[in-house]
UniProtKB/TrEMBL annotation:
GO terms for molecular function: DNA binding. It comes from Arthrobacter psychrolactophilus. InterPro entries: Lambda_DNA-bd_dom_sf, MLTR_LBD. The lineage of its organism: Bacteria, Bacillati, Actinomycetota, Actinomycetes, Micrococcales. This is Transcriptional regulator. Pfam families: HTH_31, MLTR_LBD.
Length: 286
């Protein structure tokens, strides 16, 4: 476990310990407060580990934390499934190995062909959330994707720095928080890598809002959900956001915006030429 992952693990455990409600665990209040979190010695006792060892864990010291112990601590802290997976990933016990700094820059041709065959907006995201490929429907939805500098073609970066994209998202406050929480959940194995550190530092320097949300240490697994965009030319578009993982390229995720049934989204996308990649020919005038 590298230093940054140890530090993140310690901070995350401290935050979750402080958020626990003592009464829910059958513990008396500390002083006059009824909602103060647990003490370190109480977590250690419930998790059946030494107070010294748990203190070192929160302090980010270079110790080996077994999967069994981290799972025990997670149960005491009442972590969600996403939070528990994040803790295990930070401790080096994730389902996937830690990744290096090698970036995925383009989608393999056969997978780009799959994106092109889909008649609704779809794009491919690398582990660092770099957008590595997209189809014409997605370009119709978000036209800047084709012209933004490659080094800035990152989903998290664009959500927090592109005013055009922000204007298109009426629920930007909710969407941005979901993205940060999902990104954190997936970034455990990469914490401490040069590329990950550079992206986070750059976002914190560029966006006060990102820095504030990142400091909250919220972790969420991806879930399909409704997405609403307000396009400057055709108005409101409503989708069900889905994510697929190609079996032969598990490091890539396909994000797909499926038009919501019962809304005019599909017809409005067609007005942009999203399904064909070209704008419709205007009718001849008499």
């Amino acid at each position: 476990m590298n230093e940054e992952r140890r530090r993140e693990l310690g901070q995350f455990l401290r935050d979750r310990r402080g958020a626990l409600v003592r009464a829910e665990l059958g513990l008396p209040p500390i002083g006059r407060s009824r909602t103060v979190g647990l003490r370190r010695e109480e977590i250690a006792a419930f998790a059946a580990v030494s107070v010294t060892w748990y203190t070192w864990l929160e302090q980010g010291r270079d110790i080996n934390a077994s999967r069994q112990v981290l799972e025990s601590v997670g149960r005491v802290l009442r972590l969600s499934a996403a939070e528990q997976a994040y803790v295990l990933a930070l401790g080096g016990h994730g389902a996937t190995p830690a990744m290096g700094d090698a970036a995925i820059e383009t989608v393999p041709p056969h997978l780009q062909a799959l994106l092109d065959a889909v008649d609704f907006p779809a794009f491919a995201v690398a582990p660092d959330w770099g957008i590595t490929g997209w189809n014409s429907a997605y370009e119709g939805l978000y036209s800047r994707i084709a012209t933004v500098a490659p080094e800035q073609r990152n989903l998290l970066w664009l959500v927090f720095t592109d005013p055009q994209l922000r204007q298109m998202l009426p629920d930007w406050d909710i969407t941005s928080r979901n993205f940060v929480a999902e990104f954190r959940a997936e970034s455990g194995p990469r914490l401490g890598s040069a590329a990950h550190t550079a992206l986070i530092n750059k976002l914190q320097a560029e966006s006060v809002e990102f820095a504030s949300i990142w400091a909250e240490h919220v972790v969420l697994n991806f879930s399909s959900r409704r997405r609403v965009f307000v396009h400057p030319e055709v108005g409101e578009l409503t989708f069900e956001q889905q994510r697929l993982v190609p079996s032969d390229a598990p490091d890539l995720h396909f994000v797909m915006y499926v038009p919501t049934t019962g809304t005019p989204t599909k017809e409005r996308l067609a007005l942009l030429g999203a399904f064909s990649g070209t704008l419709p020919t205007p009718p001849a005038t008499r």
